Automatic annotation (TrEMBL):
Residues 598-647 form a coiled coil. ATP binds at residues 33, 37, 78, 83, 98-99, 168, 331. It comes from Muribaculum intestinale. InterPro entries: HATPase_C_sf, HATPase_dom, Heat_shock_protein_90_CS, HSP90_C, Hsp90_fam, Hsp90_N, Ribosomal_Su5_D2-typ_SF. Residues 26-178 form the Histidine kinase/HSP90-like ATPase domain. NCBIfam families: PRK05218.1. This is Chaperone protein HtpG. Signal peptide: none annotated. Keywords: ATP-binding, Chaperone, Coiled coil, Cytoplasm, Nucleotide-binding, Stress response. It holds the Pfam family HSP90.
Length: 685
């Protein structure tokens, strides 16, 4: 045929500026599109050959990407089915969408999925090229080789050429703004990103070796891709080492994975892939883009898989391949598409089933790896209700003896001994078995069992378990004295007179050293005579809020609050009784008259305020002055009383020693206070 010119079949002249403008941020995907087309052409020829519709040889079934820096061209070549002039007219000259004006109006502000969705894969070449040529020869006998050429305007030229080899060469004349695509390293990087697992060998340049002090090309072709990645094979054909080798191919330099799951489903959608549980060494980072790679027929789509896989699986690594997810999709598309939601649900179910299978078939191995995989399972249960329901069968609890239990097993273990007077089963736990050893020891001596909950997500997970396990309560082992952790009967009230309570409160409070970001509340408990004289506990609710605040920016209010501790004084202990009696002998005669004066002043303040309230909250200047004088008097009397008691407390080294012992047991005694404690201990000996 003669040279033919014409206009590409669109109803507007500005389709190319639209492609360049709207897809510019993703302009590197032109290479993925052109190589994918070349792969399709190659695979189609193989299919035709298998049906007997193509009788020729299947030689050199590769895709080549070649750079000519002098000519300024990048060429993608294949030996696939090629095209006739009629094919070019059908597939190139007629862009497959109706109403370009409607298209432009619809996608004026967002064009994330123009390519592919509208059959514009080939036209992505114009994002980086000022001119594109197609040189092609169809597999059909007697075909005429053709060249199609276009400079980025709707006008094109098509003419016969000489071409001996079957297939298609796409030649891009790279424009001045995209000269980086004429660098071999840049092209190889993109090919490894998008094409590393395509089913046809992709050749780019030559293999290199070190020679004469520099890297030099050899005569061996550089094949970019692995044409038969592990996920395309049947699980029965793969060994454990095959799975590990593929993991190392995906993530060089990382430790071997803990487990893996081979996905393989063909109804109601097609999905294959392999997901790995990696070892996580550092603090959890939810934004783990790049861990799971999404492919469409072995063509890389994205590593931003939010919406395709459940949130908790962002901690996993591996590959998902599904032709039901188009190559060019926006994040909003992934999150709203019904097929994608079904895929997400399937993956959740498959992961849960696989974990249950591993647990059932080899519980010993599952337990050995529990500390590494618990973060996946806990995160899954916290963020996915359906996974949480399935995981209840195999989620494990570990106690301080290193024994593992399912939820049902552990409940059966502790119900007889750790159910309080209200019928609630109390789960005791520690977040630091070493630092909280004394509290753990006190609990185990009572026959209680203590769980280890020291994981990154355990503070949140505890709250979930309290919802899932009926009539349960989780209490950290150092949050109260042992007699109160699991209340079997009503508490015994500390037998102190108001004067004794006031004196002991000030004696102990005045001797507590300053601890950074910590506040202490002195309280009294009538514990057993053999229990410790002074103990420090931390309020369960406030501590739990602070733990969660450390991981949730929205709870910064709790994170900024000081740690709240209870300094509990055991009024039944011999040493406390001795301190109480010594205080009574030294202080009662001095403190009682002051207390009487304070009570009298407070009574007068109450009388004056009651009178004012009866008069409609109206007071005159004289009454206001009386109230101010009385309040000042009370404050001065209280200061004087506290000073008297504090001076006495300073003469009682046993008070300071008992407090420091309690602080030391909780890791709260530091610096000069610790040094003073050591010196005082020697003196008291």
């Amino acid at each position: 045929m003669d040279t033919k010119t014409g206009k590409i079949g669109v109803t507007t002249d500005n389709i190319f500026p639209v492609i360049k403008k709207f897809l510019y941020s993703d302009h590197e995907i032109f290479l993925r599109e052109l190589v994918s087309n070349a792969i399709d052409a190659t695979q189609k020829l193989r299919t035709l050959s298998s049906f007997g519709e193509y009788k020729g040889t299947l030689d050199d079934m590769n895709v080549r990407v070649a750079i000519d820096k002098e000519a300024g061209t990048l060429t993608v070549s294949d030996h696939g089915i090629g095209m006739t002039a009629e094919d070019i007219d059908k597939y190139i000259n007629q862009i497959a969408f109706s109403g370009a004006e409607e298209f432009l109006a619809k996608y004026k502000d967002r064009a994330e999925n123009i390519i592919g969705h509208f059959g514009l894969g080939f036209y992505s070449a114009f994002m980086v090229a000022k001119k594109v040529e197609i040189r092609t020869l169809s597999y059909k006998e007697g075909s005429q080789a053709m060249m199609w050429s276009c400079d980025g305007s709707p006008e094109y030229t098509m003419e016969p050429i000489e071409k001996k080899e079957r297939g298609t060469n796409i030649v891009l004349y790279i424009d001045d703004d995209n000269k980086d695509f004429l660098e071999q390293a840049r092209i190889d990087t993109l090919l490894k990103k998008y094409c590393r697992f395509l089913p046809v060998p992709v050749i780019s340049g030559k293999q290199q070796e070190w020679k004469d002090g520099k890297m030099t090309d050899t005569d061996r072709d550089n094949v970019i891709n692995n044409t038969e990645p592990a996920w395309t094979k049947k699980p029965a054909d793969l060994t454990d080492e095959d799975y590990r080798a593929f993991y190392r191919e995906l993530y060089p330099g990382q430790d071997d994975p803990l487990f893996w799951i081979h996905l393989n489903v063909d109804y109601p959608f097609t999905l294959t892939g392999i997901l790995y549980f990696p070892k996580i060494k550092s603090n959890i980072d939810i934004n783990r883009q790049g861990r799971i790679q999404l492919y469409c027929n072995q063509v890389f789509v994205t590593d931003s898989v939010e919406g395709v896989v459940p949130e908790f699986m962002m901690l996993m690594q591996g590959v998902i391949d599904s032709p039901d997810i188009p190559l060019n999709v926006s994040r909003s598309y992934l999150q709203s598409d019904s097929a994608v939601k079904k895929i997400s649900g399937y993956i959740t179910r498959k992961v849960a089933d696989r974990l249950d299978e591993i647990f059932t078939q080899n519980r010993t191995d599952f337990e050995a790896k529990w500390d590494d995989i618990k973060i996946f399972i806990e995160y899954g249960m916290l963020t996915d209700e359906k996974f949480a329901d399935r995981a209840k069968k195999f989620v494990l609890l570990k106690d301080t003896e290193g024994k593992f239990f399912t939820l049902d097993e552990y409940k059966a273990l502790i119900e007889p001994t750790q159910t309080d007077k209200d019928g609630t089963t109390v789960y005791l736990y520690t977040t630091d078995p070493t630092a909280q050893y004394n509290y753990i020891n006190a609990a185990t001596e009572r026959g209680y069992d203590v769980l280890v909950m020291d994981g990154q997500l355990d503070s949140h997970f505890i709250g979930l378990l309290e919802q899932k396990v009926e009539k349960s309560r989780f209490v950290r082992v150092d949050s109260d004295v042992i007699d109160n952790l699991i209340s079997k009967e009503d508490r015994k009230v500390a037998d102190l007179t108001p004067l004794q309570r006031n004196e002991l409160t000030t004696i102990f409070r005045s001797q507590i050293p300053a601890v950074d970001k910590a506040e202490f509340l002195v309280s009294f408990e009538a514990l057993s005579a053999t229990a410790a004289p002074v103990m420090i506990t931390q309020n369960e609710y406030m501590r739990r809020m602070k733990d969660m605040a450390a991981m949730q920016p929205g709870m910064a209010f709790y994170a900024e609050m000081p740690d709240s501790y209870n300094l509990i004084v055991n009024t039944e202990h011999r040493l406390i009784k001795e301190i109480r009696d010594a205080a009574a002998e030294a202080l009662d005669a001095k403190v009682q008259p002051v207390e009487t004066d304070i009570e009298a002043a407070n009574a007068e303040i109450t009388r004056l305020r009651d009178a004012a309230k009866a008069a409609g909250d109206k007071t005159d200047a004289e009454t206001d002055k009386q109230l101010a004088d009385l309040e000042k008097k009370v404050s001065e009397l209280r200061d004087a009383e506290n000073k008297t008691i504090s001076e006495f407390a300073a003469t009682q080294p046993r008070v300071k020693q008992l407090i420091d012992l309690a602080l030391l047991g909780n890791g709260l005694l530091r610096g000069s206070d610790l040094s003073s404690f050591i010196s005082r201990s020697v003196e008291l000996m």
